[in-house]
Write a structure and sequence with these properties.
Low-confidence stretches of chain B: none
Strand content of chain A: over 45%
Order of helices and strands of chain A: EEEEEEEEEEE
Number of helices of chain B: 0
Low-confidence stretches of chain A: none
Order of helices and strands of chain B: EEEEEEEEEEE
Oligomer: heterodimer
Radius of gyration of chain A: 13 Å
Structural class of chain A: mainly beta
Largest interface: A-B, 31 and 26 residues
Mean pLDDT of chain B: 92
Structural class of chain B: mainly beta
Number of strands of chain A: 11
Helix content of chain B: under 10%
Largest sheet of chain A: 7 strands, mixed
Chain lengths: 116, 111
C-alpha cells in the first residue's frame, strides 16, 4: 500500500531533550515536506526537500532540522525542544513538487508532540 | 506575503442542506488544491484546479477556480454526515513547487 509513515504517533517529552520524528514514504516521491498544525494557525510548512541532499526552509523553520540522505526518508529533528513546539506534525510527499497538477501531496497520519 | 483566507471558519448544518465555502487571496496562484482532513488523520486531496474559471465536480462536491486565479469555492449539495471534516485550500507558490495552506473551514453535518 502506498503510504507515508510517521513515527511515533504520540510523543511527550521535556524541554531540551533532543528528539527525532521519522518519516518514510514508499512511493518513490522526489518531494517531501514537514508541516505543523496548530489551532487558529492552520498548516504551516517547516522544511521541504525537492530531492535527495536538497532541503529548504519553509515558513517556520526555527528550532528544527531535517536531513534527506535517501529518497524515502525525511526525519525531523528537534535539537532542544521547547513548549512552543508542542503541536501536531505532518510529513507529506509528492512525486514532483507540491502543488503541481498531477502531483498531489500525500500526508502521513501525524505526530502529536507535547513538550513540557 | 501570500495568504489564503478561508470562510467561514466553522459551519454546522443539517443533513440535506447545501453549502458553499470560500478560499480567497490577493495573490495569483498557478494552481489551487482542496483537501479534506478528518480527526486523527492527515489531509487527503480532493481536487486540483489549474485554469481560471475552471469548474470540477466530484460527486456532490463542485469546485470552482476564480477567473483571475485568486480565489476558489467549494459547493456541497445535499450534505451528508460523512462530509464532516476540515476543508483546506492550498495554493501553489510557483517556482518552488510548494504550497501555502489556508486555515480551513470546519464543517459539521448533523443527521
Amino acid at each position: 500500500e502506498a503510504q507515508v509513515t510517521q513515527n511515533p504517533r504520540y510523543l511527550i517529552t521535556v524541554t531540551g531533550k533532543k528528539l527525532t520524528v521519522t518519516c518514510s514514504q514508499n512511493m518513490n516521491h522526489e518531494y517531501m515536506s514537514w508541516y505543523r498544525q496548530d489551532p487558529g494557525l492552520g498548516l504551516r510548512q517547516i522544511y521541504y526537500s525537492m530531492n535527495v541532499e536538497v532541503t529548504d526552509k519553509g515558513d517556520v523553520p526555527e528550532g528544527y532540522k531535517v536531513s534527506r540522505k535517501e529518497k524515502r526518508n525525511f526525519p525531523l529533528i528537534l535539537e532542544s525542544p521547547s513548549p512552543n513546539q508542542t503541536s501536531l506534525y505532518f510529513c507529506a510527499s509528492s512525486f514532483d513538487g507540491a502543488g503541481y497538477p498531477g502531483s498531489p501531496l500525500h500526508f502521513g497520519n501525524g505526530t502529536r508532540l507535547t513538550v513540557t | 506575503t501570500q495568504l489564503l483566507e478561508q470562510s467561514p471558519q466553522f459551519l454546522s448544518i443539517q443533513e440535506g442542506e447545501n453549502l458553499t465555502v470560500y478560499c480567497n487571496s490577493s495573490s495569483v496562484f498557478s494552481s489551487l488544491q482542496w483537501y479534506r482532513q478528518e480527526p486523527g488523520e492527515g489531509p487527503v486531496l480532493l481536487v486540483t484546479v489549474v485554469t481560471g474559471g475552471e469548474v470540477k465536480k466530484l460527486k456532490r462536491l463542485t469546485f470552482q477556480f476564480g477567473d483571475a486565479r485568486k480565489d476558489s469555492s467549494l459547493h456541497i449539495t445535499a450534505a451528508q454526515p460523512g462530509d464532516t471534516g476540515l476543508y483546506l485550500c492550498a495554493g501553489d507558490r510557483g517556482s518552488q513547487g510548494n504550497l501555502i495552506f489556508g486555515k480551513g473551514t470546519k464543517l459539521s453535518v448533523k443527521p
